[in-house]
């Protein structure tokens, strides 16, 4: 359904731009909540089917170093849990 919706309502160039933005996304100066919201928004444009574990790895890769150092050893593979634990660490 998601793919059909995106194909119907978004130009291909816009989808590609959003997908590229998703692949480059890093937390930077955003809070964890802001980063998670942006991540979820842009993930909708990613053209490949992804596992929950992949989503967690991608989210973790984009975190600031000080958060990543604490969160990576937790080896969390459920996205919502990862976001909540990262908010606590922040």
Give the biggest beta sheet. Answer: none
Overall pLDDT score: 92
Count of folded domains = 1
Q: How many strand segments?
A: 0
InterPro entries: Retrotrans_gag_dom
Domain Retrotransposon gag: 1-65
Organism: Cajanus cajan
Protein name: Retrotransposon gag domain-containing protein
What would you say this structure looks like, in words?
68% of the residues lie in helices and 0% in strands. The relative contact order is 0.14. It contains 6 helices and no strands. It has one domain (2-89). It has 90 residues and is mainly α. InterPro entries: Retrotrans_gag_dom. This is Retrotransposon gag domain-containing protein. It comes from Cajanus cajan (Pigeon pea). Residues 1-65 form the Retrotransposon gag domain.
List the main descriptive attributes of the protein structure presented here.
Retrotransposon gag domain-containing protein; Retrotrans_gag_dom; 90 residues; single chain; mainly alpha
Please write out the topology.
Blueprint (H helix, E strand, L loop, with lengths): L1 H8 L2 H13 L7 H12 L8 H10 L3 H7 L7 H11 L1
Pfam families: Retrotrans_gag
Protein name: Retrotransposon gag domain-containing protein
InterPro entries: Retrotrans_gag_dom
Quick synopsis:
The protein is an all-alpha fold and 90 residues long. The protein is 68% helix and 0% strand.
């Amino acid at each position: 359904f998601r793919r059909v919706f995106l194909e119907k309502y978004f130009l291909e160039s816009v989808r590609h731009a959003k997908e590229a933005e998703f692949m480059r996304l890093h937390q930077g100066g955003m809070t964890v909540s802001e980063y998670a919201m942006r991540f979820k928004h842009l993930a909708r444009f990613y053209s490949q089917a992804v596992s929950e574990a992949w989503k967690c790895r991608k989210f973790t890769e984009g975190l600031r170093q000080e958060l990543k150092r604490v969160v990576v050893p937790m080896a969390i593979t459920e996205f919502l849990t990862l976001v909540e634990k990262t908010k606590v660490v922040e």
